[in-house]
């Protein structure tokens, strides 16, 4: 599930470094006020056997903002989405937003108009098509053909031969983290967007938005839709279009 927060702002653009980065801090700040123990658990230990953090968010969207080349357009009414496959996390985020009139998004003031929980698709057929609106980031081995490690910053692009293997592994780890059936599979990559890097925390993470077809148990697909694709979802990467 997701929390869609409808906002309005007088800002006319966001710095590229502030497009994704503020979302993680916002989520933890909301949890700190409504469910501090849960927030500390996620921040320090993560969840499940792999210590993953079941949080995701997208970039702010302002459909009527005036677009300008080289700038991330903001202005007027828009929305921000936060998501988690853990119900207690999402409800704590929703409760936190109810207590706010303003959200600080990297120095831009967003006035909260309303917030509503958005249910996940049913995926009753055991199949789903997922298209992301933020880049999917994924690390590989960093080894060359001889098996020698050449880099520790081995960011993969969706067209790289290693990408499907590590993407598939990430899907299974997410299911195992949540105690769900891990028999979920990547069956096709049907679209790859333009490469883009965003700075969050230390350094920039490169990736590209994708559209993929997945098969698996409906509950597992629902959790992935609520969480995001690939790594660093809590930093805003791999957010799936609603």
Explain this structure to me?
With about 240 residues, the chain is of the alpha+beta class. It has five helices and twelve strands. It has helices at about 20-35, 35-45, 85-100, 165-180, 220-225; strands spanning about 1-10, 15, 55, 70-75, 75-85, 100-105, 110-120, 125-130, 185-190, 195-200, 205, 210-215. The strands form four sheets. A five-stranded antiparallel beta sheet has the order 3-5-1-7-6. A three-stranded antiparallel beta sheet has the order 8-12-9, covered by helices on one side. It has a two-stranded antiparallel ribbon with strand order 2-4. Helix 1 crosses helix 2 and helix 1 packs across helix 3 (about 85-100). The protein is globular. It starts with a strand and ends in a 15-residue tail after the last helix.
Low-pLDDT windows of residues: none
Quickly count the helices.
5
- The radius of gyration is 18 Å
Largest sheet: 5 strands, antiparallel
- Strand order across the biggest sheet? 3-5-1-7-6
**Judging from the principal axes of the Cα atoms, what is the shape?**
globular
Structural class label: alpha+beta
Mean pLDDT over the full residue set? 94
**Share of helical residues:** 10-25%
The tally of beta strands, per DSSP, is 12
Series of secondary-structure elements, N-terminal to C-terminal: EEHHEEEHEEEHEEEEH
Strand content: 25-35%
């Amino acid at each position: 599930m997701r929390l869609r927060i409808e906002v309005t702002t007088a800002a006319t653009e966001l710095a590229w470094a502030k497009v994704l980065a503020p979302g993680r801090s916002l989520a933890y700040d909301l949890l700190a006020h409504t469910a501090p123990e849960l927030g500390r658990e996620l921040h320090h230990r993560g969840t499940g056997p792999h210590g993953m953090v079941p949080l995701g968010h997208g970039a702010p969207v302002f459909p009527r903002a005036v677009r300008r080349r080289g700038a991330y357009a903001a202005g007027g009414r828009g929305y921000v989405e936060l998501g988690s496959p853990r119900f207690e996390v999402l409800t704590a985020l929703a409760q936190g937003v109810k207590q706010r009139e303003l959200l600080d998004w990297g120095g831009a003031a967003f006035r909260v108009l309303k917030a509503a929980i958005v249910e996940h698709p049913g995926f009753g057929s055991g199949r789903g098509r997922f298209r992301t609106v933020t880049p999917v980031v994924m690390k590989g081995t960093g080894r060359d053909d001889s098996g020698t490690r050449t880099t520790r910053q081995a960011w993969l692009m969706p067209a790289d031969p290693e990408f499907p293997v590590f993407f598939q592994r990430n899907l299974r780890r997410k299911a195992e983290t949540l105690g769900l059936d891990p028999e979920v599979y990547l069956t096709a990559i049907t679209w790859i967007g333009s490469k883009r890097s965003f700075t969050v925390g230390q350094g920039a993470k490169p990736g590209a938005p994708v559209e993929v077809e997945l098969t698996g148990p409906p509950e597992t697909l629902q959790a992935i839709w609520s969480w995001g694709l690939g790594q660093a979802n809590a930093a805003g990467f791999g957010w799936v279009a609603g």
